[in-house]
Amino acid sequence: MAKLKVIMDAKGDTSKALKKYLKHWGELKGFALALQTGKDNLGETAAKLNRLIGFGPVMLNSSQVVDIDSKGNYVRDEASWGEYMLHMAKAQRLLEDKFGVKAKNKAIAGDLADIAKQLGAGNSAEND
Q1: Which of 126, 97, 102 is CA-nearest to residue 114?
Q2: What is the total count of domains within the chain?
Q3: Closest C-alpha among 37, 40, 41, 124 to residue 89
Q4: Measuring CA to CA, how many Å separate 126 from each of 52, 112, 121?
Q5: Other C-beta atoms within 10 Å of 8: how many?
Q6: How far is CA 15 from CA 1, 4, 12, 49, 57, in A?
Q7: What is the pTM of this model?
Q8: Rounded distance, CA 26 to CA 125, Å?
Q9: Rounded to an integer, what distance in angstroms lies between the CA atom of residue 18 and that of residue 59?
């Protein structure tokens, strides 16, 4: 997301970075769903993970699928890139804490409060 945001801010060609971002988001969502189909009931951990990842990724126009209505239609809303990046850091931390993840590729380093400040995510940094 950080690389994609840099390209967007520079008004560059986002097509390659967007494909990579969407691929990684899909893998994350699939992994989270797979965790929930195991023999153990993840309870609150699953609820937090689903809330952090959401129904869909934040798109280039800052829209995101946030719900599905009673007729099966996607409900979109405006989203914040900074806040969603913070959610991804929180999801990574949750996976580390609950599942003892040791091998990490492209880990987000640092304290969540510091990350929130860097991303300009506002007061929601410590809510989860």
Answers
A1: 126
A2: 1
A3: 124
A4: 13, 8, 10
A5: 15
A6: 13, 9, 9, 28, 15
A7: 0.77
A8: 24
A9: 9
Residue 86 tokens read as: 């913070």
**Residue that wins the pLDDT comparison between 95 and 128:** 95
Q: DSSP character for 74?
A: E
Q: How far apart are CA 85 and CA 92, in angstroms?
A: 11
Rounded Cα gap, residues 103 and 96, in angstroms: 10
Instruction: At 13, list the tokens.
Output: 């060609």
Asked if residue 107 has pLDDT above 70, the reply is no
| Tokens (6 digits) for 65 | 């699928």
Yes or no: say if 74 and 63 are a contact pair by the CB < 8 Å rule.
Answer: no
Domain that holds residue 114: 2-126
pLDDT of residue 93: 87
Helices (H), the chain: 2-9, 15-35, 44-53, 81-99, 112-119
Integer Cα distance of 106 and 91 in angstroms = 14
